[in-house]
Amino acid sequence: MHMNSDPYAQFENLDDPYVANYAHIAHQHTQEAFVDADTEAMAADMLAQIQNDKQIPFCQEHRARMYHHYQSADYSKGVYRVCTAASFRSGLPDWDILFAVGAFDEVLGDDVYLNHVTHCTLAPTRALLELSSGGGDAAYTLEFDLAAKTIVAGGFHFPQGKNHIAWRDENSVWVCPAWHEGQLTRSGYPREVWMLERGHGMDEATPVLQADADDMLVAACRYLDPQGRDLDVIEVAHDFYRKTYYWVDTDLQAQALKLPDTCDLIGYLGGQLLVWLKSDWQRANQRYASGSLLAVKLHKGELGQATVLFAPDAHSVLESVETTRQFVVMHVLRNVQSELRAQQFKQGAWHEANVPALPQGTIELVDQPYGGDVVYVAISDFTTPLSLLCVDFALQDVAVLRKQPKQFDAKNMRTQQLWAHSADGTAIPYFHVGTPNERPVATIVYVYGGFAVAELPHYLGLLGRHWLSLGYAFVVANVRGGGEFGPAWHQAAILKNKHKSVEDLLAVVHDIQERGLSTAAQIGLQGGSNGGLMVLAAMVDEPASVGAVVAEVPLADMLRYPHLSSGASWLAEFGDPHSDDEDMQRALYDLSPYHRIAHQRTYPATLLTTSLSDDRVHPAHAFKTYARLQQLEQASWLYCPEDGGHSGNSTQEELAAETALIMTFFAKQLAGD
Fold first, then answer.
1. Nearest C-alpha neighbor of 431 from the set 410, 456, 413
2. Cα–Cα distance between 519 and 513 in angstroms, integer?
3. How many CA atoms lie within 13 A of 338 on its CB side?
């Protein structure tokens, strides 16, 4: 399919001063339209909630010390701090500041934000700091001595790039570099794996593997086995869903493991690989079902006996897994509701283990201190503030460590799981949260719907305080393309069937209206990244079915997406617009909101957000869509701060300001406030 030349192609060049100026002016217009004294007061209130000292500090525990990245009014970029585990558990932590993130601006000569701190597990006062420019994905890596509170002289330091750097042991690291063009795949990620020893430069590093430029990326890591010998593994991702795993022997030779190319390797315990199947696996006379978790014995690279630790059914799927010294802990979704299961490996065999009783709510496995059988678990739901629990599987004990402060009064609110029927008859679940009302009310419908990510209930703190408390409602649509019902739920809405995610979203919108919960003029759609694509596509399909749209860091140009930032890495999700398959080309054109915005139609008020530092989904998607809507004199706005990257990694002030503006936008468009 050949398209006419793109009138807004200029927006793909972020080095063009016109583009930055255009974004700046549009951002100012948006501020003028929606930021008044009330919005500023809301942002100030949100910031006070975010910075409340009673908010739970989520930590990494290493050797009975709790490490935490803390942002506050005094430290807008945050500090990294530590306290003893005993003081943390007592509720009176003795925090000691190890470094301030803002201090690295001068060191690196750049405006940097903290992406990650990776401790060397067996020497945890040595850490690799990943510091990103403007909050993007590309980052500098510095080795830091947390005991001495200094950058390690001559340590493991690497220039900015979408690198993958991982500890091998205290004196060596795996390096997957991405700072030169020749080191990159066509997706812009690393394709080489090197082993670097302390005191050596990259010119002395050992090359271990090079993937093909058409592969998506490589990564390497060391699995520590508390019950046996450690294992070095390399992952070569051919695309988002197909990969080859290699084990690295003592001579640093990489040898492919004979695993299915659709599985995920997610752990190693007792000399066994923990393998999460994403398609059926026929092995000798045994067939293992897609969605199962297996423990597969490994001896010198050869796969042995497999034990099924989890098998899915029509209602239950695996969501996440954590390993401890003896246990494999599994977060399972049963009809999008959380439960924990566990298996214990002792005396050479697997046994189903008891799980201590936990409160109801959505579970998140947030930390597992190496060498023990403790898992830190967070539990919340839409209207119940989050609790942090310490679950000891060996002792069958649960301790509640923290409870998040309540941010709104939920006593009259109700959460329902309802079901809509999509265009092909598939039942699509959604959660509806609000105060029961005989009349339809303004309702935000949130969606993601891609890359096998499940959207689960979570505490709606700020939204509950500034939306639900006003009598309005909130909906999460669990559309196909997500991971709510396992691999098949995801695979039902990819490639030529990606439109099914949009049909599912519109089915939820229709169902809300048919139940009298809201009207078309009162429904706002909200989604980010892939979710931004979903809400824009739904808006273009049925502009009269919704009253407003917020598309955050969205994809929108589905004919150019593989050429923009990390777009080539998503070909397995969306398909290739440049393939010889005319049906694939047509499917992408029919999905692409940017190309289908038409002269003759009136679209609902649309707010697009992006960031000039987003190096994952190119800002051109939002810029071009905004320019097209503006050309057609449609009600549209662009919110575009300079920092934040794709994941909103900027200051708490910026988070509060953007959230308050979105709430003001929805209130004005849907409720006439």
1. 456
2. 5
3. 26
pLDDT of 2 > 50? The answer is: no
3-state secondary structure of 229: coil
Q: What is the dihedral of CA 254, 258, 264, 270, to 10 degrees?
A: -80
Let me know if 519 is exposed, middle or buried by CB neighbors in 10 A (0-12, 13-18, 19+).
middle
Nearest to 444 by CA among 356, 365, 358, 517: 517
pLDDT digits (tens, 9 = 90+) for 573-627: 999 999 999 999 999 999 999 999 999 899 999 999 999 999 999 999 999 999 9
- As a whole number of angstroms, the distance between CA 123 and CA 267 comes to 20
**Collapsing DSSP states into helix, strand and coil, what is residue 341?**
strand
Do residues 149 and 129 make contact, with C-beta atoms less than 8 angstroms apart? no
Q: How far apart are CA 588 and CA 596, in angstroms?
A: 11
Instruction: Please write the tens of the pLDDT for every residue from 624-664.
Output: 999 999 999 999 999 999 887 788 778 999 999 999 999 99
d(CA 539, CA 549): 7
Residue 411 three-state SS: coil
Torsion of CA 310, 315, 321, 323, to 10 degrees: -40
Short-list 493, 554, 564, CA closest to 528: 554
Q: Which two tokens stand for residue 532?
A: 């931004």
Contact status, residue 452 vs residue 482, Cβ threshold 8 Å: yes
Q: What is the dihedral of CA 216, 222, 226, 227, to 10 degrees?
A: 80
DSSP label at residue 92? -
Q: What distance in Å separates the CA atoms of residue 344 and residue 270, rounded to the nearest whole number?
A: 11
Q: What percent of the chain has pLDDT over 70?
A: 99
Which residue carries 């929606």 as its tokens? Answer: 34
How far is residue 179's CA from residue 167's CA, in Å, rounded to a whole number?
19
Here the contacts of 399-403 (C-beta below 8 Å, separation 24 or greater) are: 399/89, 401/88, 401/89, 401/376, 402/56, 402/57, 402/91, 403/56
pLDDT, tens digit, for every residue of 20-69? Answer: 999 999 999 999 999 999 999 999 999 999 999 899 999 999 999 999 99
Closest C-alpha to 411, from 435, 394, 389: 435
* Nearest 10 degrees: Cα torsion 16, 22, 40, 522: -120
Answer for the pair 416, 334: CB distance below 8 angstroms, yes or no.
Answer: no
Exposed/middle/buried for 508, CB within 10 Å: 0-12, 13-18, 19+? buried
Look at the chain and count its residues. 673
Structure tokens at 245: 């795993």
Helix (H) or strand (E) run with residue 587 in it = helix 582-591
Cβ neighbour number for residue 302 with a 10 Å cutoff: 11
Place of tokens 């010390």: 65
Is the model's pLDDT at 265 over the cut of 90? yes
Q: Tokens in use for 267? A: 């752990």
Give the strands of the sheet with 264-269, arranged side by side: 264-269, 272-276, 293-299, 302-310
Question: Residue 540: how many CA atoms within 13 Å on its side-chain side?
Answer: 23
- Tell me how far apart the alpha carbons of residues 216 and 234 are, in angstroms, rounded to a whole number: 14
Contact 243, 209 (CB under 8 A): no
How far is Cα 422 from Cα 500, in angstroms, rounded to an integer? 8
Q: Helix or strand or coil: residue 223?
A: strand
Residue 569 host element (H or E): none
Confidence of residue 4 (pLDDT cuts 50, 70, 90): low
Tell me the backbone φ, ψ of residue 374, rounded to 5 degrees.
-100, 140
